[in-house]
Amino acid sequence: MKLSPPFPSPPPHPPAPPPLPPSPPSPPEEEPWVGRLILWIVVSLVLLIILRELGKRFSRFVGLIVLAGQLPGDVPHFFEQLSEAPLYTIKSLSREEIWHFVKRAFVFPGKMTILGRDTSLERLERIRLRFQDSGWRHLTFRTADGVALDGCIHEPLPGREKRWVVFMNANMQKYEEWLFYFNRYVNEVGVGMLVFNWRGVAFSEGYARHIRDLWKDGEAAVRYVMDL
User: Fold this and answer.
1) Which of 26, 99, 167, 186 lies 20 to 30 Å (CA to CA) from residue 41?
2) Sheet of 192-196, strand order
């Protein structure tokens, strides 16, 4: 009798897979009011920045009205033409000139200039150079916030008491155009005199957008004389 071979033993069971690592704890759900608070803070900051920039532009506009001497070129002649023929005067300006004015006045506030050659500044410089032979010395001094102001100074006459006059221009006034009268006053009275242009006017740097800017200019002029 022939015996059949024994049945093969079943294969061993595969080893059990290692246990999975514990999953990280899920972040706590954000409360709805927290998200709204963050959004409110961000929107408020953006609005504050926008309002601040708009305030700067508005104060710049007011500064040009209060101190119209910041406008470049022959301003009285331009306003005279504007009053006589407003449409023709505006149409005579090129797009580049209009954009240059808007940019320096409101978009990127800065010292007002004109495109090309400024014959008005050349005329003021010729006047100033003419009076340097009469004892006037050209100078530049800085305000507390670092703005360079253009001016002229005349020392007191020899043998006279050292007294000083600091002249602060009226609106639309530039000291160069009044040097004839200043020179006559100095020689008659014998005092020393400092004259200057406000920030943004003629050769002075910067621009005015608040009355505090003019206070700083006046304080710097007086301090310059007191430090002599």
Assistant:
1) 26
2) 137-142, 148-154, 192-196, 164-168
DSSP string, 43-80: HHHHHHHHHHHHHHHHHHHHHHHHTGGGS-S-HHHHHH
> Where is 110: in which H helix or E strand?
none
**Contacts of residue 192, Cβ cutoff 8 Å, sequence gap at least 6:** 153, 154, 155, 156, 162, 163, 164, 165, 186, 225
Nearest to 168 by CA among 220, 128, 111, 205: 220
Residue 127: is its pLDDT beyond 80?
Answer: yes
Q: Decide if pLDDT at 221 tops 80.
A: yes
pLDDT digits (tens, 9 = 90+) for 27-61: 665 567 777 888 888 888 988 888 887 777 777 77
pLDDT at position 186, please? 95
Q: Give long-range contacts, CB 8 A cutoff, 24+ apart: 214-220.
A: 214/67, 216/143, 216/144, 216/145, 216/147, 217/143, 217/147, 217/149, 218/166, 218/168, 219/143, 219/144, 220/141, 220/142, 220/143, 220/144, 220/149
Q: Can you tell me whether residue 137 is helix, strand or coil?
A: strand
pTM, full prediction = 0.72
User: Cα 109 to chain center, whole Å?
Assistant: 5
